[in-house]
Amino acid sequence: MSELSIIWSILASQVLLGLAMACALFRVVRGPRAQDRILGLDALYINAMLLLLTFGVRTANSIYFEAALIIALLGFVSSIAFAKFLMRGEVIE
Questions:
Q1: Has residue 89 got a pLDDT over 80?
Q2: Is 30 part of any domain?
Q3: Domain of 77?
Q4: Computed over its alpha carbons, how large is the radius of gyration of the chain?
Q5: Helix ranges restricted to H, the chain
Q6: Residue 93 belongs to some domain of the structure
């Protein structure tokens, strides 16, 4: 596989991830229920993490990989906190 095709495929994936982030943001804003908004936020942080990973691959800079790891950890914890809040009405017991 040539280097040019890899560059174009990474660029195409970044554009499609940006489009997926726009769709997830639409679900966050327009969600009829709180569960839909939380799922939209989950999709948004996953797409942001993947977009940072593609930036890291494209620029060969390790700071993007570290930022993606932080987003993944914080996104997982926030998803658990939101789910617990929806189930019980409180996060900390």
A1: no
A2: yes
A3: 3-88
A4: 16
A5: 3-30, 34-59, 62-88
A6: no
